[in-house]
Every structure is written in structure tokens, then in C-alpha cells.
Amino acid sequence: MNPAAITTDIDILRSISIIEKLKCEILSETARLFKSMNEHGEADNKEILSKLLTNVYLLAERIGISPEALDASALKKLKAQMLSRETDEPHSEENKLLEYLRRDKP
What we know:
By secondary structure, the chain is mainly α. Helices cover 82% and strands 0% of the residues. It has helices at residues 3-39, 42-62, 67-84, 92-102. Helix 1 runs antiparallel to helix 2 and helix 3 (67-84) packs antiparallel against helix 4. The longest helix is centred in the N-terminal third of the chain and has 37 residues, at 3-39. The mean pLDDT is 88.
């Protein structure tokens, strides 16, 4: 086997390993969030959610989805979710998120 092929194989294995690690961290943080919501305060939830969000963006990048594409998809899903609701309840949280996703990022 030539050295270039070995390097490629190692890179593929490393990438798979990172993807699996990120998936496990996302599951772990999700479980921590459920537990924290019952036991702890807002500060813990904020830390867990920020780690979860970071890991989702990192995983998306690893599997070929840019942060911009992920944001665009989230914006599309959010709009569809807001339109599909058949209630008159206000969408204040959704509207805040919609504004955030629409604004230019630094």
C-alpha cells in the first residue's frame, strides 16, 4: 500500500472518530440538559445549551454542512413551524429567533 493511501485511510478514520465523538457529546449534553432542567438553575442550562449548540455546528461542518447553510435551513424550518400553527398564540420566542437568524453575522 502506498503512503498516500495510508494517509488518506488515517484521515478518514480520524474524521469518523471525531464525528462519533461529537454525536456522543450531543447525546450526553442532551441528557444533561433534561436532568439540569429538573434540578438546577438557568446558568447550568445556558452552559449545557451552548455546548450542545457548538457541537451541533461542529458536527454539521464535519459532515459537509456549513454554518451558513445550517442557519438557512433552521430559518426555513422555523418559518414553516410558525405558519403551520393553527392557534392565535403569540410567537414571541419564534419571532426573536427569526430576527436573530435573519441578521448578518460577524
